[in-house]
Amino acid sequence: FGLSPLGYKAVSLALHAANAALVTLLAARLAGLSPGTAVGAGLLFATHPLPVEAVAWTACWFDLAATQFILLSLLALALGWENRRTSTLAVSVVAAQLALWSKESSFTLPVIAGLLALTVGRRPTRSELLRPILFLFVLVGVYLAVRFLAWYSLVGYTHTPPRFESLFPKFTVTVVCAPFRLAPEAVVLPASESPM
Q1: What secondary structure does DSSP assign to 99-135, as a single string?
Q2: Which of 60, 63, 116, 125 has its CA 20 to 30 A from that of 69?
Q3: Torsion angle, alpha carbons of 5, 9, 10, 15, to 10
Q4: Parallel, antiparallel, or unpaired: how do β-strands 171-177 and 184-190 relate?
Q5: Residues 11-21: pLDDT tens digits?
Q6: What are 183-190's contacts with CB under 8 Å, separation 24+?
Q7: What does pTM read for this prediction?
């Protein structure tokens, strides 16, 4: 889009409109609302002033993306519970991972999915309900562990660099530049093979 802000604004509005459409689908599917009421819920979401910053600032696309992936994950999860298809549950897990990569606050997704399980029309068995939710909890746990190893913090960003060596004394962190990359990447090598 170059220096023209119109293209960036159009992308923001398109992401927000897609999120409003997902809210409409969730309202119709899960709450059993009539089509008109579900559209009203989607329009309320689209016009509510709460997400104005995420829509107006292109630097906040991660908020729109995280919202989209959370809504998609919840919709796929509900559809998977209703039609008992593993493929839709897999879409839910992939969307949950994309939501986690978009914004940290997505770690609340398993709790939201647990609340969603209470609204499912066709009552799945307890194992059908819990298996995907437990998998989402494991996914979030792995994400938080990787985040802790990378940032030495579960929330926010610390100014203290991670002390990998204190966590794993038999290994050392060596920063190397890959041949075709501009940014250095950390490589974990056994301490005996470290070039330092």
Answers
A1: HHHH-GGGGGHHHHHHHHHTT-SS---HHHHHHHHHH
A2: 125
A3: 150
A4: antiparallel
A5: 999 999 999 99
A6: 188/164
A7: 0.73
